[in-house]
């Protein structure tokens, strides 16, 4: 690779998106058992974070960026939140619209690239941004997170999932790509041939994600792993438990409970890492509020010039 490969990343990224779009047209829309499995694990983190941050509140304004077939958007809409979903692929959005209709909820769906779509949105207009299984294939992921920060209200939450370094190393080792696995260990982005075509990916560790959130203006709240012991297809973790293979109800239940345990020492080993960041109130605003409050207290405590 040359010293500035961003143009290659951009070109390959667009090519991969085109191929994926054609695959969606061929395969059609679907809700797989595996999607449902990981949806429940995601919700097991997302919903408690919402309760902890916002408590008993009215409907939140939620952006599901890269909403896919609506697996998370629909669940949040069912809870009464005002949800907007953005996705690049028309086929996924059609499935999401059908899913929302079946569940009797209203969601605004928009087709387009996340960064371009958000450009016209107002500052500080969203309470919660969800972005799952998208940013790891976006070479402009940092700019996208900065845009999320812009549209978030003070006190708002960002929840995004990223590929772990562990995932790519185990997957490449399973495929016999030892030199590429070493490359992943030493870098944070690049072109990898995991499936049929070389594709742009980025990957992180837990500490790297915390640094990324801070650099984008967000306060790190939590980072948890999603899919620690199971995978599918060519995943390295599918060598442990392959979710494409049938499991007994008892095994499925036990695996679901195991995957829902979020111990700190497991943070970096999942298929994905779900990072939670908070947009804090500006220090300048806090200082101004505190100063005004002190002035008000001083005014009421001082003798009135008209008192006798």
Shape: globular
Determine the N-to-C terminus distance: 83 Å
- What is the strand tally? 9
The fraction of residues in strands falls at 15-25%
State the secondary-structure class: alpha/beta
Number of helices: 11
Quick one: biggest sheet? 7 strands, mixed
- Helix and strand string, N-terminal first? HHEHEHEHEHEHHEEHEHEH
**CATH superfamily membership, which one?**
Vaccinia Virus protein VP39
Label the CATH architecture. 3-Layer(aba) Sandwich
CATH C-level: Alpha Beta
State the domain count. Answer: 1
* Biggest β-sheet: strands ordered side by side in the sheet: 3-2-1-4-5-9-8
Mean pLDDT: 86
Q: What does it look like?
A:
It is a single chain. The chain has 308 residues and is α/β, with parallel strands linked by helices. The chain has a single domain, classed as 3-Layer(aba) Sandwich (Rossmann fold), CATH 3.40.50. It is 46% helix and 18% strand. The protein is built from eleven helices and nine strands. The chain has helices at residues 6-27, 33-54, 71-78, 90-103, 114-118, 141-151, 165-174, 178-186, 206-215, 249-259, 283-301; strands at 61-65, 82-87, 108-111, 126-131, 152-163, 189-192, 199-202, 219-226, 272-278. The strands form two sheets. A seven-stranded mixed beta sheet has the order 3-2-1-4-5-9-8, with helices on both faces. Strands 6-7 form a two-stranded antiparallel ribbon. A hairpin with a 6-residue loop joins strand 6 (189-192) and strand 7. Helix 7 packs antiparallel against helix 8 (178-186). It is globular and about 50 Å long. The model is unreliable at 16-30, 283-293 and 304-308 (pLDDT under 50).
